[in-house]
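Field reference: sequence -> structure
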Amino acid sequence: MSDIVETPWRKTINWCEIFEECKSLKDELEHYEPLGDLITGEVTFPQVNILLFGGVGAGKSSVFNTWNSVFREKIFNVARSGSADHSLTTKFSKYPILSSSKTGPRPLKFRVCDIRGLEPDHLMNKDNMRYILEGNIPDRFQLDPAGNISADMPGFVRHPKLDDKIHCVAIIQDASIVDAMQDVNPDVTRNIKEMQTVMNNQDVPQVVILTKVDNISEETKEDPAKVFNSTKVKSCVGKVSEVLGIPRNIIFPMKNYECETENDPCIDAMGLLTLKGILNQCDAYLFNHYNDIINDYTVRNKN
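Structure field:
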């Protein structure tokens, strides 16, 4: 029996004009400026940082690779991804996303931060999460989530700036195990919720990226454009909202590039919609630091 309904459960874009809609979304995000509707002229904030956080195999690195593929307009894998018993990511890495243009690739105004996937034996401790959120951890830092980090370690950033901090956390959740997420990975789910407390204490917004939605709906697998018409995907969003306490409107269904060898506009559109929602949350974080941005990121005339 089909799980597809005529009226989408979330209003997004006109999927009948997917090429035009995708081009418009991509152009909008390529010209994204942090808090751009409020700061202009001589005030420039370098970029926002998005942390990908979740269990092993949920698709963290694949999310970054998918976004990169959208903007490079070809399947383009930078972060290590794939199926393994243990996390393929062992370092804390800050990845820029480059756009593909006639004048050559240029970094966009957002970076994606990737860390080791959570496992029962490699859970995140609260101090390490605070260091990550506060911007104390440098790029390419070898990071065991459960290990002990101290300010005496080489490379530790003692006085991070606002643009070093994490501005939004994207919790990555595999849609195919949502029904049993508290039974299959109870320690990982519990750890994510504990880290949410740390994020809330630091006033860092969170969203959920619901990956592998094509695995819960056969019709969505055949036609990704139907993801917002799928009652199974809608139900999955509701269950994640209940478990993690995150509003439905910031839980984003997304299919990563996995077996595809060419870009698909429907997959691109899902990735772009997700990224747009995350950047809105980054701006919400920056809004609370508006005065700091004006004071610290204004290019002043030295004459």
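Note: Residues 265-287 form the longest helix (23 residues).
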